[in-house]
Structure formats: C-alpha cells, structure tokens
Amino acid sequence: MEKHLLLTVSADREASSNLRFIRHFFDALCDLRITLFYVASRPMDQEYHFVPSALETGHQRQVPVEEIKSPEAREALQHAREWLVAEGCGAGKIETKAVYSRFGTVHDIIQEGHAGKYDAVVLGKRCVSWFEELLDDSATNRILQERIDFPVWICRRPETGLSRDVLLCLDGSEASMRMADHVGFMLGSAPRHRVQLLHVRTRAEDRSAAMFQTAREALLENGVNPQQIHEKVVASDAPAQTILQEARQGHYAVVALGRRSREGHGGEPTRQGKSVTQNLLHLIEDFALWISK
C-alpha cells in the first residue's frame, strides 16, 4: 500500500534532514507519495486572529505556491521537489503546499497533519527545535497530547553509516502497540529492515512476553519477515539512557516508541521531571525518533 508522508520544508537547506532521512531509509522513493509543506511568515498586509477551535476544525488557508510573496518559500519547495525527483521519486507523486502562518509553525504543521490524514509527519532539523520547546512547555504539551493523532518522525542528522534497522520500544501501552502497527505498515515486506523489539524493564515483574507477542503479530500482519524480528529485555531504572545506548550500539536508523500521558516508556516522568520521549528528543543526534500517541 502506498504511504503518504508530509515533509516540512524550510528555507535553510542545511536543515533538510527529513529529506535525507527518507532517501537513506527507503529502498525505493517511488513507493512513497510525498507532500512538501512550507509555512511562510504572514505578510504585513494580512491579519489573522487566533481561534482555538480552528485547530480542531482543520480549517487552513492554503496558498498556491506561485502566490507566496516570499521567494525563499518558492525556492525551498522547488529545490526540495527537484532533489527528490533526482533521487528517484516520481514527479507525479510529489505535491507542494504552502500556508501563511496563523498559529505558529508547529501548530500549523499539526493542523495540516490532521487535515491531510498523512501516514506520518516528518520534521526537519529546524522544526525539531520548535517541537522540543513545545514539549518543554506544560500547557502546550497538553495540547499536543490531545490533538496529535498521527505519528511524528523527528529527524536531526541521519548518517549514511547507519543501518536501516528499527529499534521498537515497547512498554505494554496502547500507544506503543500503535507504533508497532505503524512500523509494520511503513516497512511492509521490505527485506532490508530489521526490527529489534526492546522492553526496558523498570519493575521486578517481567511482562515482556505478552508485549512481544502482540507487537510481533502486528508486524507480521503488515508483511514483515519473521526472520527480521528480534527481541530483547533490559532491566534498568533509566529507560531513556538505556534506549539511547541500545540505539547507538546497534547503529539503528530509527528509534520508535509510543507516547502516553501517565506511565510507561513514552510518558512516565523521570526523576528529572521529563518523560522518556522528552529526554530522547533532546539526546538524539544521528538516528530518527518516531513517536506515536
């Protein structure tokens, strides 16, 4: 099944880590449908008023690229499109969209993610820093928890030396199982991706068997080769650091996990007051972080 990704684009070409990631991770870009999305600064002659319900209704003023007054926006979208075509993505599978910012860049991206029903929203380097700030703000963090119902891929600096393997972190939550299904859907029957199931056990009780079984079933239903699925349990009181260590040692291209509000890998506050997701978001460098609520 064709996958549809929303890739954010900025005028800073050095920040196009999301484009470089998908080129490295996928064998054939022609199997993807890609929407390139640019949020342009609001022109001085236009006024918008923030309406909280607008984020829920999905109303967004999309502007034809040729009407965007910013040459940086047009050039960035055109450059990204030409780069993807040169890397093997069919021109007919690439769409470009631009909007004038209404709620702030990240909120505009979230709104487009809802409206377009994408399989994933893939953030470049610049948007990652904004996303980090939102997660650190408790009020905005609640908004993200409530409204993001699509997987988000955080891309910093993917290196060609990394494998194409995925470290899938499981804590038994529904969010982590949704991520298992997402990983299976994105990989499908691709032969070059290995999936390492990881459970960081923070309690004496070991519940990994049931988690692994459910996740394995989700992967198999999506066509992942059973020979490419592996399991590992690590006992640790520092799940974020343990996940980071496993990711570095295994040279994984992706660390995937679910995010929930109260407990588990994705949402349980650490002794420093931050969730595992927040800690990983600050610590990741080479690999991509896939997050599913």
From TrEMBL:
SUPFAM superfamilies: Adenine nucleotide alpha hydrolases-like (SSF52402). It comes from the Bacteria. Belongs to the universal stress protein A family. This is Putative UspA domain-containing protein. It comes from Megalodesulfovibrio gigas (strain ATCC 19364 / DSM 1382 / NCIMB 9332 / VKM B-1759). The lineage of its organism: Bacteria, Pseudomonadati, Thermodesulfobacteriota, Desulfovibrionia, Desulfovibrionales.
